[in-house]
Design goal:
With about 120 residues, the protein is an alpha/beta fold. It has a single domain, classed as Rossmann fold (3-Layer(aba) Sandwich). Helix content is about 40%, strand content about 25%. It has five helices and seven strands. The radius of gyration is 13 Å and the shape is globular.
Length: about 120
Amino acid sequence: MPSRVVIADDSERFIMAARVLLEQDGMSVVGSATNSAECLHSVRELRPDLVLIDIMLGDESGFELARRLAEEHGEERFAIILVSTHSAADFAELIELSPAAGFLSKSDLSAEAVRRLLHGA
């Protein structure tokens, strides 16, 4: 179970809400980022177990960020989960092609949902 989390989202409000939600269930949000550059830096510095990435990261693509993280950290194992207010069906092909372990709707985000997604339940 991932315990060290970095959240990449262009909404500070969502970052704060997700932090509270995940930390209530034992996860530690060690960093956050509002753009790709901040996220890449945070992952290099903080070495999380999990990176949550908003699909629409402001003007940037969360899919591209996930790809860059996977390329840059190849052998270093951490999970990537894409999140969005949009449904998975809207981005199904892109999610499938991404290096992410999967997708969670922001409204469904919880430590339990993360566990289920990462353990295939």
